Each structure stands twice: as C-alpha cells, then as structure tokens.
Amino acid sequence: MRGRARTMAAVLLAATAVLAPVCAPGAALAAADGSHQARAHLPAPTGPFAVGTVEVPLTDTAREDPWVPGQPRRLMISVWYPAVPVGERAPYMAPAAGAHFGGPDGMGLFNYGVTPGSTDWAGTGNPARKGAPVLPGGPRPVVLYSAGLGDPRTWGTALVEDLVSRGYVVVTVDHPYEASEVAFPDGTLAASVFPGLAAQPGLDIGALLRKSMDVRVADTRFVLDRLASLGDTPGLPAGLARSLDLRRIGMAGHSAGGFTALQTMHDDPRIAAGVNLDGQLHFPGPDGRTGVYLPTVAEDGLSRPFLLMGTRSDDSGDYHHQPGWDALWRHSTGWHADVTLEGSRHGSYTDAEALLPQLADRGALDAERLRADIGDVPPARAEAATRAYVAAFFDRWLRGTDTRLLDGPSPSFPEMTWTP
Question: Quick one: 161 exposed, middle or buried, by C-beta within 10 A (0-12, 13-18, 19+)?
Fold first, then answer.
C-alpha cells in the first residue's frame, strides 16, 4: 500500500509493505551540514495578536506507559498563547525530532512521501516566538489540538497559530510511541513503535487501533487535569496559567485526532465543543481493511456542539458516506454541522497544505504525490476556509460570538459544500 490513505489503519498497512525508495526527480539529499536541504514556511496568522509558545513535559505517575511497559506515561505538550512579539522564533520541530520525521523511518516519508533527508523540518519558517511574554487580557478560551496517527503535534501549527492570533490559548498534545517521534527535554527521542508492531505476524490491526484511541483519550484527559495546576510548573512565562479560562474548553483534531476530539468530548464533560477534521469514527476488523465497528461516541451521540469537516478523498465526504459520522449524526441531540472542502484530500486540513507545495517546488516530492496528499484546491483557499470555519465554530460556542458563517452555505467560501 503506497503512501497514506485516510483511515488510521493506513500507516500500519504501509509499514507492512515493501516500500521502494521515494526519491523525487532532482531531489537533493542533505549534505552533512544540511546545506542542501529544502526549507518552507508557514503562512502568517490572520488575527491581531502575536503568538508565543512554550513546551511543557508532563508525567502521569499513576499510569504505566501502554506502549513501553515499566515506565510511567510521559507526554509533551505545547502551550500557544497571545504574546508580546519579542524574542527568537520558535523552531517548527526540535532538531532531533525534525531529523527523524524527515528520515527513512519517519512519517514525512510514510505519511507524505517526502524524500528522506531532503527537508530541514526544524528550520521551517514559523511566526511564533519561543517563550515570549504573555499578552495581558485573559483569561482566554482554551482549545486542545490532536494530530493524526503518526503525525507529531506540530503538524497543525498553521491552524493553531491562527486561533491564537484571534485570542485563544491552544494546547497541542503529542502521543509518544504512536507519533512519529517525540523529543523530550532530557534528550530522549521516543520514536513510534507502530512500524515494529505492524511487522508482527497475525497482528489484529483493529484491536491495535482501539488501544491507540483508548491511550489518546487517556492522554488528553490527563492533560486536562494538569492544565488546572499549570501555574505550579516552573519556567513558564509569567501569567500564562492565569490566561487559561478552563470553564471554556474546546477541542479540534485531524484524522485520528478528530476521532480523539469527539471521543474525549463524549467521555469528558469538560470539553464543551469539538471539531473533527476528516477523522473517521469507526474501527476496522483485524485485517485493517474490512469491517465497521462503532465507538461509543458514534453509538451514543453527543449532546454538545460539534463540527464535521470532510474532504474529497475516496473514503471521506459528508456524513451520508461515512458509517461512523452517520451514526453520530443520527444519535446526537446537540447542535452539529457538516461541511466538505471541494478539491481537497486528507492532508488539506493540516500543514501539508501550506508546506508540501513549497517542498514539491524544491524537488522533495513529486507532483503526483502532492495531489494525492492535498488535491487540487488552491492552498491559500484551503487554508483560509479551514481557519475561518474552525474559528467561527469556537467563536460561536466558546465566546458566544456568531459570525453567521455556520448558518448554511456561504458565498465567501464556495469551495465549502454544506450538507444539511
């Protein structure tokens, strides 16, 4: 199976395949000093506030790591906040994480077909300021963000930074040993165990994905617990903990992260509203290709507001075309809406939309793979639509400010199809 389909099982199926080297014509592999690596940059946020960010390690001493037994569960999160625009730019990825993500065992290759060694991921241009002073004016609504299976927490940075520039605090969550890699402050690099698991004979992919979702939800709920005591964490910018309004919490995520957002919302009443960016809401059977097994969020529905955002990938679309989305739609009593981005593919709601076209221009991946990842919707329009709909949703349900964008089809975004 080449590359990456939309289902969470795809990365496992890809890992079991014999992959030929992925080298785009003319792609230059990195020199020892990285001088030949391609670089790209994120689009500027659209809101009035500058963006600050800080990394926070967390340890759940009450829980053994489910992927690496014998040690407590450790997590990395980043907190993004409206800031005074001073200080150095934050790296897009830590150098060790970026090297692994862009190497032969990283998800840059498995999920997006980027030539190993071709890209300086740590040097990706990023508007955020590392550890910048907190801008007065809080407390502010909080949004948690969860990336897709195998993707690091940085892979939704363009959307995250835009929300922050509009006045939100956003917390991005990594899920170690499932994510491609997670870099910890002590120098540990926790690489994904999934490729190794996928090589085991007789693997029950459906069971593994159910375990993964259980772990993701437990991670997210632990993060919610720790946000209440964030002020006890040393080394954070002054006033950061006070800037979080924990009475107004939403969650968004892409792919498996979208599944995580709505399942956690089902399990934890602290999350008031959720956005699912092209994340299926069912599990496959043992082979990872057939079978439909619904999670409790789809079987029970939700009584609080949620937004479904689909793509034109073959196995996506609106709720009529997805069994888990359809069940959730029928069983929910809270406000809900469904939009589909025309011309898009599964990666269109992530940083792939902004970064991959730039990298393709520099020979790091070919045009065919680029279209498979993000389709043919113009990147600037995809970015604008994603940001506008996610912000409008959280403005409405966390701030009580209604732009009317979510009332139905909008002439401002004709590429977004509304499904009643």
Answer: buried
List of residues 6+ apart from 54 with CB closer than 8 A? 78, 79, 130, 131, 236, 237, 240
Q: Is 385 left (phi over 0), alpha (psi -120 to 50) or beta?
A: alpha
AA letter at 372: A
How high is the pLDDT of residue 130? 97
Amino acid letter for position 126? N
Q: Which of 28, 266, 45 is nearest to 166 (CA)?
A: 45
Place of tokens 């002054």: 238
Q: Which residues contact 225 (CB under 8 A, 6 or more apart)?
A: none
Q: How far apart are CA 240 and CA 134, in angstroms?
A: 6
Cβ(310)–Cβ(340) below 8 Å: yes
Q: Calculate the alpha carbon distances from 393 to 211, 248, 328, 329 in Å.
A: 30, 13, 18, 17
Distances (CA, A) of 134 to 44, 127, 148, 171, 333: 19, 16, 29, 15, 38
By the 10 Å C-beta count (0-12 exposed, 13-18 middle, 19+ buried), 53 is classed as: buried
Contact (CB, 8 A) for 244 and 227: yes
Strand 169-173 and strand 72-83: the pairing is antiparallel
Distance, CA of 194 to CA of 199 (rounded, Å): 9
Question: What mean pLDDT is predicted for residues 95-122?
Answer: 96
> 3-state class of 309 per DSSP?
strand
- pTM (two decimals): 0.93
pLDDT digits (tens, 9 = 90+) for 287-302: 999 999 999 999 999 9
Segment holding 181, helix H or strand E: strand 181-183
